Amino acid sequence: MYVCGATVQSAPHVGHIRSGVAFDVLARWLRNNGYEVTLVRNVTDIDDKILAKESVENRAWWAVAAHYEREFQNAYSILGCTPPTVEPRATGHITQMIELMQTLIARGMPMNQLVMFTLMFVRLLTTENFLDKKLMIYFQLETRKVNLVKKIHETSHYGNL
What we know:
- By secondary structure, the protein is mainly alpha-helical.
- The protein folds into 2 domains: about 1-90, 3-Layer(aba) Sandwich (Rossmann fold), CATH 3.40.50; about 95-155.
- About 65% of the residues lie in helices and about 0% in strands.
- The chain has helices spanning about 15-30, 50-55, 60-80, 95-105, 110-125, 130-155, and strands spanning about 1-5, 40.
- Strands 1-2 form a two-stranded parallel sheet.
- α1 links the parallel β1 and β2 (about 40).
- The radius of gyration is 19 Å and the shape is flat.
């Protein structure tokens, strides 16, 4: 069972932890009913908010992520959640992410065109200005994340997409 885990950018609150508790209950129920469960809960340990905290907290981004990851693990432990079988970190799989993007692009799915198509499609379906503005803000944020990944990639040793 794959569970999208925490983005470790700040201290956990009940909204963050709810997902971990819910999937812990499901995994326990499945095990109790005879199923073999491998629980994989990822940790997003790099994103724009973590990078922004680097200067605010006056420590490296990876130290910020490690600190809050420990806080999340402590919160899960206090609530009695069973640790996941595997807990991969995003930074440990950048090569695979790049390979996936390369595969998608090779199959004719350029990311920029995909984002633009999605945005145009949503705008066609949206009639109310308020909803349209909220969606525009969402897609601007998502585009910013794509640009951040590109920037990290360009300054790393992984080569060009």
